[in-house]
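Final report, closing paragraph on structural work. Over the funding period we assembled a curated collection of sequence-structure pairs, and we close with a single example.
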Amino acid sequence: MSTPSSYVAASSGYPQHSDNFIPQIWSGKLLVKFYTATVFAAISNTDYEGEIKSQGDTIFIRTVPDITIRDYTKGQEMTIEFPDSAKVELNIDRAKYFFFGVDDIDAMQSDLRLLDDWSNDAGEQMGITIDSGVLSDVYSDADSNNTGTTAGKISSSYDMGTTSDAVQLTKANILEYMVDAASVLDEQDIPNSNRWFVMPMWATGMIKKSDLKDASLTGDGKSILRNGRIGMIDRWEIFGSNQVASATDGGNTCYHAIFGQKSALSFAAQMTKMKPVSLEKYFMDAIKGLNVYGYKVLKGEAMGDLYCRK
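Its predicted structure, as stored:
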């Protein structure tokens, strides 16, 4: 690829992209779908998303009531109940935006579709930013029976770690803790389907280093030691993330590796504004995007927190 022999000079402090690209007419359309870049969108349900117009909208979620089961003897008069389907509010009370421009000369002389490429990157960064905010918050809404050193609604026998006493994960014990976390949800009678586990990236590395010689543990045809892919482990779909909430505790960096089932969390978002604009004072096209969203823990009993360190 050759470098243009001449180009229009840039003002001081303005990036000169012409140094890097060959001339080519630029055109393109943009589409941002940040869902594919987020962990949270994969572990939550979006059943209640509906139509979001702007920041401040509220989605009303109707919950399923608990029906009482009673003993019966022949000929007895039965007791009827009238269940009340309570409403839970999911507030769309958060918003993030981006706004960037590309000079017309850079756009024309570039061999890349700058607005397209940068718009896609903006979607990726939007997902990372939202993930970071969500994962640093929701762990605190996990049911108390699913956290701490005496987790387990029935047995109180599982150590999920706590402040000043984080679980130390190694390649030798990480599978045991994952099985224990599954048992924690089992004691809450949480469905086996759609279970997920979000952990730091180093923890997913430990899984790959663990002695998973039995391919049936992951449901794959080959051991992950051979193909490098993490499949299902004891009903968990595993997600690695650099956005997992962390804290300095006793000189160690400790992490809130959350686990649960999709019914625990609800998430709704909408790119309400996403359009190209022309800046009057510049020969420049710009893109601006506004994403409004909200999230809520609907069932704390369907989510747990493994407080761990490396």
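The chain has two domains: 23-136+266-297, 139-265+300-309. The two ends are 46 Å apart (CA to CA). We thank the funder for supporting this effort.
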